[in-house]
UniProtKB/TrEMBL annotation:
It comes from Aspergillus luchuensis (strain CBS 106.47). This is Aminotransferase class I/classII large domain-containing protein. InterPro entries: Aminotransferase_I/II_large (IPR004839), Asp_trans (IPR000796), NHTrfase_class1_PyrdxlP-BS (IPR004838), PyrdxlP-dep_Trfase (IPR015424), PyrdxlP-dep_Trfase_major (IPR015421), PyrdxlP-dep_Trfase_small (IPR015422). Keywords: Aminotransferase, Pyridoxal phosphate, Transferase. Residues 33-176 form the Aminotransferase class I/classII large domain. Homodimer.
Length: 300
């Protein structure tokens, strides 16, 4: 029997995403006490998906919409409302039309588009700083477009670790990029805040010095969108445009997170970030008691 080589023989195995793997573990766990605080999904008291009433109403209102393609930069009303939400109507950036933006496939693709734009500029260093903890795919997104990724601490038991934040920003190269630098750009997703993960509704926006730069940036954004997805999806953007929030970090150590998963069947990210939407009347007391117990163990 003849054997044929393949182009994919040298492809290395990639470990699964930590959050997605957490959900797999949760689903096969037979314990009736199990609680999933890992993914940001709204659930009812029985663990079934719960749709926000505003989302239901928006879906009903756009039920008979046609399925024509959107403009390449996205749904105009969605863009207008989101930029006004982020930058506020009174901001000089909005008044002077200095915001370039495009609709994106939720937060992940918005970051990817931002990375593609930034890595092409000659003025910035190819280094980007992201927070620790961050979403598990953020490093991968920026490394995939050619950035060297560095992390800085920003969370503490009392809230934001300002000393670590200032220290990291002071040491950073002046031409490097930080995910916190909101004066240059914003990436936003409505997957969690509106519970529409499957519709991938997001936006990538850049603030420029003047409107002529905006025109150039949007032309390049259009080129990127055309080459990668051709046109943005309409349904999620229409839902968001028709409407008038879910996470916290507990401050537990990775060992404590492992302990509550193994012995109490409570699933959360290793950083102890939890989705409040995973709590309900039937499990909130159980979760609180288990977390209280493990915190008391640490302080003994």
């Amino acid at each position: 029997m003849l054997s044929f080589s393949t182009y994919f023989e040298d492809v290395a195995y990639t470990p699964p995403d930590a959050i997605l793997e957490l959900t797999k573990d949760y689903k096969v766990d037979p314990d009736t006490r199990k609680v999933n605080l890992g993914q940001g999904r709204y659930k009812d008291n029985y663990g079934n998906p719960w749709i926000l009433p505003a989302v239901k109403a928006a879906k009903e209102a756009i039920r008979d919409c046609e399925h024509e393609s959107l403009p390449i930069l996205g749904h105009p009303e969605f863009q207008r409302l989101v930029t006004e939400l982020v930058f506020k109507m009174a901001s000089s950036a909005i008044r002077e039309s200095r915001v370039a933006f495009c609709q994106a496939l939720s937060g992940t693709r918005a970051l990817h588009v931002a990375g593609m734009m930034l890595v092409r500029t000659s003025i910035c260093d190819q280094t980007i700083y992201i927070t620790n903890p961050s979403w598990s795919n953020h490093r991968q997104v920026f490394e995939s477009v050619g950035f060297s990724v560095r992390e800085f601490n920003h969370a503490s038991r009392s809230g934001v670790d300002m000393q670590s934040l200032f220290r990291a920003m002071t040491k950073a190269d002046p031409m490097s990029i930080s995910e916190l630098n909101l004066e240059t750009g914003v990436c936003i997703s409505f997957a969690k805040s509106m519970g529409i993960y499957g519709e991938r509704a997001g936006l990538c926006a850049f603030v420029s010095r003047n409107h002529s730069i905006v025109t150039n940036v949007e032309s390049d954004l259009a080129r990127l969108i055309r080459g990668e997805i051709s046109n943005p999806p309409a349904f999620g953007a229409r839902i968001v445009a028709m409407q008038k929030g879910m996470f916290c970090v507990l401050g537990l150590t990775p060992d404590q997170v492992y302990y509550v998963k193994t012995f109490h069947h409570i699933y959360m990210a290793e950083s102890s970030r939890i989705s409040i939407a995973g709590l309900n009347e039937g499990n909130v007391r159980y979760v609180a008691e288990c977390i209280h117990q493990i915190i008391c163990r640490r302080e003994e």
